[in-house]
Amino acid sequence: MKRIAIFASGSGSNAENIANYFKGSQEVEIPLILANNPEAYVLERAKKLGIDSVVVTNKEFREADKVLAIMQEYKIDFIVLAGFLLLVPAKLIDAYPGRIVNIHPALLPKHGGKGMYGDRVHEAVVACGDTESGITIHLIDERYDCGTTFFQATCPVQSDDTPHDVAEKVHALEYKHFPHVIEEIIKTLD
Ligand code: GAR
User: Fold this and answer.
1) For residue 63, how far is its CA from the centre of ligand 1 (angstroms)?
2) Separation between Cα atoms, residue 133 and residue 125, nearest integer Å
3) How far is Cα 115 from Cα 9, in angstroms, rounded to an integer?
4) pLDDT tens-digit profile of 75-101?
């Protein structure tokens, strides 16, 4: 059994979707959701899902020791960033080499980097007149939105689409693909 912690900063609709996907799984369990914002709606979702949650400050996250201790306490094998907006510190990456995956709501390397998250990404896609967008699921390294890409899926962007329209299409791709891509990655772990 592999134990996943999900890190999220906001609504947490992906976290909930992933938790529901793995409910009852013999291979994967999700004992913990970590947030860096005490107001994040993902904490409500964790409560409803019956999953433990923990909130750390941005400073604690950067320093990593408290987070590492929590990961050890919960015997976490793998970390999923699902709408998590902080840069992951080297200490945590070193403790989980090849075992931290992120989802970005666009086709990296386009529209990535510091400050590019959530609706800002969809606004940039529309402002650039892109004809497609999509999702990128990738391993993380010490830079924003870099690291080996595992999976991309695309959706068309029409010339009259608003950022909200693009967000809806991208969220649909996230819900459809993120859980099973996580499952595939987990299968490759020893
Ligand atoms: C998702 O679209 C995710 O791809 C994005 O934040 C949203 C979170 O939604 N992540 C980033 O932009 C990271 N750079 P959710 O909280 O409802 O899952």
Assistant:
1) 23
2) 7
3) 14
4) 999 999 999 999 999 999 999 999 999
